[in-house]
Amino acid sequence: MAGLPPSDIISEDMRVIAVPSESKLRLLNAMEGLPSPYTQLGPHCIASHNAVLSQLPPSLIADIRDFHSNSLAPGALLITGLPLDPDLPLTPANGERSTEKSSLVSEGCLTGIAKLLGEPFSYASEKNGDPIHNVCPVRHRETVQSNESSKVTLGLHVENAYFDKRPDYLALFCLRQDHENNARTSFVDARSALSKMDSMDRAELQKPVFIVPSPQSHHEATGGEKWSTPRPLFENLDDPKLMCHFPGMKATTPKSQEALDKFEETAQDIATHITLQPGSILLLNNQKVAHGRSHFEPRYDGLD
Fold first, then answer.
1. Straight-line distance from the first to the last Cα atom of the chain, in angstroms, rounded to the nearest whole number
2. Gap between the Cα atoms of 118 and 110, Å rounded
3. What's CA 252's distance to the chain center, in Å?
4. Of 101, 110, 173, 203, which has the fewest Cβ atoms less than 10 A away?
5. In this protein, which residues make up the domain named TauD/TfdA-like (predicted)?
6. Average pLDDT, whole number, for the chain?
């Protein structure tokens, strides 16, 4: 649990592993000279994946692969002690990729570890198609339900729930905290929440009657808000294939809406809240886990 404040609660829905200091230094050196993932994604991923395989301990690699292959594994895996870029530039004011970032250490850690889980990809309609997104506050976007917000709680959701084909996993790498260290990343495993609900409500949640709005980050490219086709919130307890997006999600029948409200209340009650530390990657199984973020106060001084 290296790097986690004592006040944070670690739940049984998350496992924590730490990178040894000597491995951290070797991985930092191995990330020098990587091709850019923004212009050469394939060669970049091959190089970063080889660096991760060669410099991280085999036991740690096995833990990440177990997170992927073991259906009973917790839905969240926190990896602490990873290297950071030596000269981290100012936080981008527009939420886009920084043009001042000269090294690719954080990108390499993300893609190299992600390759142990699958193939990194992006949506052409989001963030100019960039495979890696900066998550940071943007002025005048403080209260929207997107990763550019700050003064509102970002509701529990799975990444890109609107789409029929969405990521199996999500990787969040903390480079810089908010000034007061108030921001908490929240997550809840659907299996834990659903196990606390009665069978009748679970049956309602398995009906294809739930719709979610398209993400705001896609609206400019897709011509505004759209709604998904009706789908179940989950398919089965062992492999939920969770479709969750709070707020905004709704059911098309009153009885299913009642079950949905109960699920949201249960998920909020049992969610885990952690303070991500610089050098930590949180891996989330996007088919089983919904995530969100608490509000915080931005300063727009380049160090948010």
1. 25
2. 12
3. 28
4. 203
5. 108-298
6. 93
